[in-house]
Amino acid sequence: MTFQKSSSTSSIFHMLILWFANVLFCTDGLRAEMGTTPNLKHIVIGRCYSYITLVCPNSSYDCEEIWREFEEAVMRKSRCNVKVKDYKRMFHATPQTLTCGKLLFWSKTRELMHSYAAVTRRFWTLEDTLVGYMFNDLIWCGQEEKDRGFDFNSCPDWSTCVNHPVYSLWRQASQNFAAAACGNITVLLNGSIENAFNRKSMFGSVELDSLNPRMVDHVNIKVVANLEGPFIESCTQGSIVDLINVLKTRGFRWTCTDSDLTLMILQCIRNPQQFSCLPCANSLLHRQRLHL
């Protein structure tokens, strides 16, 4: 049976796909403005209360204290001189126990990773932790001058600072996340780029080295390429092989797949007209017509 776009059933089916894709994939992305995110304090404290009320209602964090410690770490310091250790007191105020066997790591697969976690409901990402939830997609930097507060006009790029205030926080958050990993963990990497496993990425430079082989049973690597390609890296070629060698050297057990069906379906939901998605779309349409 062919995919007849002219039929009313097909049109309804196509509209449902587009709606579902918008729900899963519609994100604003990182803000283009370079200054501190406006209303930063209200956003961070509001997200904290949302987290302890809706996400983890059994937790008992002091949101006001967390903000004070965060503010103390950033304020009145050079925009390029906020070190990881400056956030020590803030992280001390946000301890969190993570469930074994549910942690999902990623690199260059941000959008698909969040959809994968949302659909499967099996994983926790860094952005699902309290710190990740509070600071996701936000930008901040202070000013050295006394009592000047945050700089809402401009903040430096990560690449221009060794001790960038945003990078330092995420570096410590990533290290804590990986150090807490236990049981089976999953790593989602992009097979359509060179160096899918990049030693300079947050996963390659911080999280991988923080994993404990005595606590982690298996590292499950999932390589996913764009539906239209290019198909550059896989479990048997490119930097993924380097990652596997690192895991072997450190004593981790591992698996690797570059044909995960769930990931492909998620990609097809977003782009159902792709040639590789037509068999799946035809099958779904056929099932739908059988129940009409």
TrEMBL record:
InterPro entries given in the database record: ADP-ribosyl_cyclase
UniProt keywords, alphabetically: Disulfide bond, Hydrolase, NAD, Signal, Transferase
Signal peptide bounds: 1-32
A GO MF term: phosphorus-oxygen lyase activity
Pfam families: Rib_hydrolayse
A Gene Ontology BP annotation from the UniProt entry: positive regulation of B cell proliferation
Similarity comment: Belongs to the ADP-ribosyl cyclase family.
Protein's UniProt name: ADP-ribosyl cyclase/cyclic ADP-ribose hydrolase
